[in-house]
Amino acid sequence: MKTMKLIAVLCTSLLMSCIAADNGDNSQIRTPDGYALIWSDEFDQDGRVNEKYWEYEEGFVRNEELQWYHRDNVYIKGGILVFEGRREQIENPNFDPNSRNWRRNREFAEYTSGLIKTRDRFSFQYGIMEVRARIDPRKGSWPAIWTLGVDRGWPSGGEVDVMEYYRIDGVPSILANAAWDVNNNYNPKWYSEVIPFLYFLEKDPNWAKEFHIWKMDWTEDYIRIYLDDELLNEIDLNETINYDGFNPFRQPHYILLNLAIGSNGGDPSETDFPILYEVDYVRVFQKIE
Hints:
Blueprint: E1 6-7, E2 35-41, E3 55-56, E4 67-69, E5 74-77, E6 80-91, E7 108-113, E8 115-117, E9 127-134, E10 141-149, E11 159-168, E12 171-180, E13 189-196, H1 197-203, E14 212-218, E15 222-227, E16 230-236, E17 253-261, E18 275-287
Parallel strand pairs: 4-7
Antiparallel strand pairs: 1-2, 2-18, 3-8, 5-6, 6-7, 6-18, 8-17, 9-14, 9-18, 10-11, 10-17, 11-12, 12-13, 14-15, 15-16
């Protein structure tokens, strides 16, 4: 049974915007040996997310995805954070029929969904992040758990995809990635592992109906990404150097959770909506010095 809201019980000079501790009971949370819980959201209070800790994205944002991001598509119900992808038409207030920008030349969005992030509210450098979530694998669905560096824009700031689910050449897949800037032309270096979704279904036909734990174990030397304690990818941080010598994974990162529709997720036109992406908790631990 989950009892915590958001907490922060440890703050070091290395890493973060520090958050005042909640008085909730954290005895139910399994903490890795040698670590302390420094921040979590257990999503225990129904309604909207706490905007002291999460920022919404709005509108058409990236990747020429189909959805209009909207805060009404993100809500907490029964102790679960829900991203609800909907098939609904919404007018684009930035519409310009003469624009070549895909964010402006669409008169309407035909789908809506949601994204929240901890930018300027919480960031961390090194430690373990755990997210327990359930994804919808149907066509058009592109859920993700990821981080971005606080300093420098994309991709120079670095990106870690703890979880992405989408289709590659039509094959549903789970990905664990990192990206950084090797040439200063928005064509980053990707270090990725792609696991066909069938691999997980063969182990458990009910996999998509269940919650699973994605974990990022981050040190000065490596980032290891796990799914239900199975190692998916290990990134050597001695190799993740930008074109100018900056290492984007030796700086604080902030957290993003979202459900995109279309683009890499595939054509959603024949999918029954809504599509749901559900998150039980987000937890960050750091080593006890």
